Amino acid sequence: MNSPCTVSLDFRPDFSHPSAPQCAGRSLIAAIAQDAASGEVLMLGWMDEEAWNATLSTGEAHYFSRSRAKLWHKGERSGNVQKVRAIRLDCDADAVVLEVEQVGGAACHEGYRSCFFRRAELAPCAETGICCPRVFDPATVYQQGK
Amino acid sequence: MNSPCTVSLDFRPDFSHPSAPQCAGRSLIAAIAQDAASGEVLMLGWMDEEAWNATLSTGEAHYFSRSRAKLWHKGERSGNVQKVRAIRLDCDADAVVLEVEQVGGAACHEGYRSCFFRRAELAPCAETGICCPRVFDPATVYQQGK
């Protein structure tokens, strides 16, 4: 009974949303990766239709890399893939939340658990700092692929 | 001793990021509003520099409305403003997380607590549904402003 899981056809981002950011001829939606267990927001990526389809078919987060203008299987170099447990779709269907298990414990290419590692308290008063641990040393991890 | 709180000058989005989405001549960054208490992702909005400055100076979330192409004080019609407790900035400074207290309990213009009210489970198998409560009836709330 290992039939592939498919989401219903109406659960789908609107890749022709009139305000969708464009890159290399693609319409993009925003994809927020959130730790499925802790709720921490890990990163914001972008998806074109190909990345959406690849995410659904593999169960691992795929994004569209704007800097490289191509499909990006998150973790393809570092091994830190994101296993997608659930997806949430917003009211006007131009953004999704991916509830993920972050393999390796770090989403950020700088080695931090979350890309949002800088934090400023506004209330009661402003205080800025690093708010999450650095899990790996990027100089070590990324030199392996060179 | 009620001097205004200001964040440090280097804690600031990059409004000239080369991949920043453009709208009406403005460079935008993505702004994720997250419930400061529960961690639930409430909505994704966009900020230009004016919206960023207005958020800091008032302590309430301001966005740039792409559909109206102007500054949008979230909650200005419904009363459901977002009190910003902290801000997190990502590694390449083109996205922020706003940790907010959502006044009225609903961020979505459709009355749901979160704009991400539709959810599909991927593992172990796909199941889609509404994942958060509808807090208000938009037909009632928004007719007050007409």
How would you characterize the overall build of this protein?
The structure is a homodimer of 146-residue chains. With 146 residues, chain A is mostly beta strands. Helices cover 11% and strands 34% of the residues of chain A. Chain A has two helices and ten strands, in the order E-E-E-E-H-E-E-E-E-E-E-H. Chain A has helices at residues 49-58, 138-143; strands at residues 22-23, 26-27, 29-35, 41-47, 62-65, 70-73, 82-89, 95-102, 118-121, 127-130. Chain A has a four-stranded mixed β-sheet. Chain A starts with 21 loop residues before the first strand and ends with a helix. In chain A, 42% of the residues are buried.
Tally of individual helices of chain A: 2
Question: Percent helix among the residues of chain A?
Answer: 10-25%
Topology as H/E string of chain A? EEEEHEEEEEEH
User: Would you tell me the overall average pLDDT of chain A?
Assistant: 88
Terminal residue distance of chain A = 42 Å
Low-confidence stretches of chain A: none
Biggest interface, chains and residues, is: A-B, 53 and 53 residues
How are the strands of the largest sheet of chain A arranged?
A: 4-3-8-7
Assembly state here? homodimer
Rg value of chain A: 16 Å
